[in-house]
Design brief:
4 domains; 12 strands; about 55% helix; about 775 residues; single chain; alpha+beta
Amino acid sequence: MIRLGLRLAIAGGREAIGRLVIIAAAVALGCGLLLTTLAAFNGVNTQNARYAWMNSGVPGAESACTAQACASFTSQPAPASADPMWWTLSEDHFAGQPIARIDVAATGPDSPVPPGIPALPGPGEYYASPALGADLASTPAAQLGDRFAGRQVGTIGAVALPAPNMLIVIVGHSPDELSQAPGAVKVSRISTIEPSDCFNCEVGMRPDAMELILSVVTGALLFPVLIFIGTATRLNAARREQRFAAMRLVGATPRQVSTIATVESTLAALAGTVLGFAVFFGLRQPLAAIPFTGQPFYPSDLSLNLIDVLAVALGIPIGAAVAARLALRRVRISPLGVTRRVTPRPPRWYRLIPLLLGVGELFYWVADTPGPLHHRLMNADLGFLFPVDKPQTGTGQVAVFLPGFLVVMVGLVYAGPWLTMVGARLLARRSRRPATLIATRRLADNPQAAFRAVGGLVLGLFVTTVAMGVITTIVFNRGGHAENPAVENSMTMSIFERSARASLGTSVPADVAAALRAAPGVTGLTVVRHNPDDNPAAPPPTAPMLPGLVSCADLAKVPGYGECQPGNTVAQVMQDFSTGFAPVGRVGGPRAPTVWLPSSATAESLDRLPILSIVVATDGSSAAVEQARTILEGAYPGWIEAPTTLADSQTDFTKTLNGWEQLANVVILASLPIAGCSLAVSVVSGLAERKRPFSLLRLTGVPLRMLRRVVALESAVPLLVVAAVAMGMGLLTAQLFLRAQMEYTLRPPGYGYYLIVLVGLVASLGIIGSTLPLLERITGPETARND
């Protein structure tokens, strides 16, 4: 029977070969996307492991790693050295990119050495990553190189670089010099504990937090692919069922028929699985460039382990075999089963239950988020219905929110036929045109078949809506910088009380002030002093207090930093003049100057107060910002907090957000074409299976244009009806996720979202229209005569 199944699978001429090619292509696409997602999970963990050594100065990160952590790392932890080294870790910036700076000093010949370099750099030496080395070679020393006193003696190897474009520098010092730096600690071994296993680690990420995003992306991509596979498998299903029924009539047993069908489907699945691995290797390079963790990947990091390979290579053909057996259950009932053409039972309202359960699962967690809803539940003594705590870990978030997303997606597919039927009945009541009445009657009789053609597009639209809603809201709440361009372009050297030895003194050295004012692009220099009344240990003040004080005369020299109230000589300000946290401001729009709080201090007393921050106004050019940063770092070496701009403080978040946006674009650009292919295959398959009824209608005098209108309406009505529901459910799901996770309120997506929806719907209608010319070829009189 296996040989017979193989012959039947390929002996049907171009029709059989075409069906196998379409099924194999659908399986290959799904297999490639699944492998790519599994490799992305592995790549996140591999990338995170390379951050481990940078946490060597963190208390607890030096200890020997656990068995689980050691098993996932490339090497076992080295024994503690008898000669510890001095170590500081700080963050710098250049051209919008963060620089991880590690300052080290050996205390003996056996001091531990970080990975990627042959030995610790001595005083006046440093190692740079390849990307930073290229910047050093192409940038004037006054803007970058002068921050690292000495010369570059080597390049940091890839084993120590989480990403190929990371900027990392290891600077050497003498022990006497570095031991006096703020935050300096002794390190006796290089840490190999992954940040995910280290509670106190400062560098790296929690990979579990990415699992939620990647899992949702996986479902968003695989659901349309699975629908495509199912649609391709059903291609010419009626004719195949008739063929299998004929075999039953001549004596074939149900088991033999199932075996033949299984061989046919498994053959296509095996070919598709092999091609899927080729798709994976083709997608790996472009996927590695997507910085969805904030940094791109090495292509080799996106690898597969043996379990991943075996699970996909064996699971997909087995799943295809099981699907084939289930698809032929009508033939197994009786040989004449497929000839009984009766109107299927209409879908019932209970098809909405999975959709409501998915929304209810997400709503359940919103109840624990402080807000009006939460308080109403508590005040109504309904808290016992929501005895939950919002999950705080990435694993907990995956366990909570991923099922809700997936159940909503399944619910849309399951409820789609009922929604299609309701929409068709409503349209039928308001229409009197023959084509509309025929189309709506057919939709109401068999809404399952009609919705099957547009199911992939509906899911693609749902995923697009969720992604756009979430990203738009996050950008609105966290993606912006200061409302004042002058403040955004300023360079700030601030003191954060992270060390008792941290102090900028009470005055800026004259040569430093002169160098800053002489730098091209620098437009002003302002010194902010500590506000002695702003004491965190003191009782809450009756009036608002800000951390800094500035002379109103100095403030007037830097337009854009705000104004003093009339008659005041000293004002309370934020240490970087940002208005995001200022409690006062002039009414009149976001661009109105900030009017700072008055202070009882006098201008003469300011010179005796310690400096809180040094703010350098620039014209916003990269050269001016970087040269001012380099001057400040040279004047105040060894600080944990390097001079920054407001744009620098948003760098990491912006890069991560850009990665999420690129992932959303991947989902949109992949799911919509896949769904479009599914729609085209479904419409063509439906035309092929109904060519005899359409031929009889043409013989009775029905115009061809009316038949085309019927086919168009049968596809367009479920598409538009369920698309509206998918968009609404997408916005609702995004709102529930944002409220539960971030306590944000959904912001309506921008015009780009509506443009994508419009393009997707127009393209779908275009696909439907491109199949209509087939009607004239397949509905001629010879079709009715031959069949």
